[in-house]
Amino acid sequence: MASCGAFHSFLFEYDTPRIVLIRSRKVGLINRGVQLAILAYVIGWVFLWQKGYQETDSVVSSVTTKVKGVTLTNTSTLGARIWDVADYVIPPQGENTVFVMTNVILTLNQSQGRCPELPDDKTECQVKNNSCFPGYVSTHSNGIQTGECVSYNSSIKTCEVLAWCPVEDDSHIPKPAFLQAAENFTLLVKNNIWYRKFNFSKRNILPTINSTYLKNCIYDARTDPFCPIFRLGQIVEAAGQDFQEMAVEGGVMALQINWDCNLDRAASHCVPKYSFRRLDNKDTAHTVSPGYNFRFAKYYKNSDGTESRTLVKAFGIRFHIVVFGKAGKFDVIPTMINIGSGLALFGVATVLCDIVVLYCMKKRYYYREKKYKYVEDYELVSISGGRGKADLLPSLSLERF
Hints:
By secondary structure, this protein is of the alpha+beta class. Among the domains are: 20-52 and 332-371, Orthogonal Bundle (Helix Hairpins); 58-110 and 189-329, atp-gated p2x4 ion channel domain (atp-gated p2x4 ion channel fold), CATH 2.60.490.10. The protein is built from nine helices and 19 strands. The chain has helices spanning 2-11, 25-49, 85-88, 211-216, 232-238, 243-249, 332-345, 347-360, 364-371; strands at 14-17, 54-58, 60-68, 71-75, 79-83, 97-116, 143-151, 157-165, 186-195, 200-203, 229-231, 251-258, 261-262, 273-278, 293-301, 307-324, 326-330, 373-382, 390-400. The strands form five sheets. Strands 6, 7, 8, 12, 14, 15 and 16 form a seven-stranded mixed beta sheet that branches. Strands 3, 9, 10 and 11 form a four-stranded antiparallel beta sheet that branches. It has a three-stranded mixed beta sheet with strand order 1-19-18. A hairpin with a 4-residue loop joins strand 9 (186-195) and strand 10. Helix 2 packs antiparallel against helix 7 (332-345), helix 2 (25-49) packs antiparallel against helix 8 and helix 8 packs across helix 9 (364-371). It is elongated. The chain starts with a helix and ends with a strand. It catalyses: K(+)(in) = K(+)(out); Ca(2+)(in) = Ca(2+)(out); Na(+)(in) = Na(+)(out). It is a multi-pass membrane protein.
């Protein structure tokens, strides 16, 4: 019966708020201070800085690029040679990227056959104590070992391989870079963006740019911030790097285009902002496989019908065009949501003042007695149904602020 009585006591309880007015300068200052802080947060941060009254959308973008520049090299291997876009931009078009070759190792007139492997502590061998194993891939992955130990030169013997001969020797990278003049090549970036929610589109070649200006301008953050043509050396330097140093072994750069637009203003205020940074790791403590390079070959048919090739190990700078941004425009729904959230935050001031009054002040016990009032009432409640008996059960009501 005790548990039944406790259940009925809980069932007939009722809480009602009680307002207690406390005249205290300290508590009043805390209350107003918290309210002002909340008001400043809602107006300053939520509405002015974060533009909480706007609906937002992320950018959809497409990018095309075009590189221009010609240079002349004169070496004992190739003689005098002109290099244009078709030679150093590989491949001709990429998805939001462009690779410009700045250095190269050429292995000319390769043909398939048998030849000695490059000498090192793993490939050098002796005829009497042969360490070459037929069918094994060579140490430098240039070919398949035949099992023979042959002369590389008059003093060194190495394992023979079936490969494109002569095998590539990439132990010495040209310094300075083979195409050091690439620093003055230019890159045209054409970028079209679209904000789907607002049906707003634009491109980085702004309406104020005419063909005459486009033919002569070069991007400069101070004098020509909206010119879409960039000098390669300037991109690298703007990221705090040295172009000639980077050109030797290659690297990866990002050309970033930011389209943050407030569409409550005129469309002319929605303009691109360019920034630059290096993406690959240039940590002096981690020097394994630095830079950026890859190989490709150009094949030829000789007059006798045999096939030969020129193997190209290309070092260069890969430019990634990274487009990001968001647009915002006034909308009633986010405005009302943020206003409601801001008003709800004012309850924090009351909670904080309650904590100070009830737990921190000297008269906390006195205030706690005034805040909570317990009222007991006794009602005749029938709990026995058909037996006609009644119990007097206490009902507790808590009135609080």
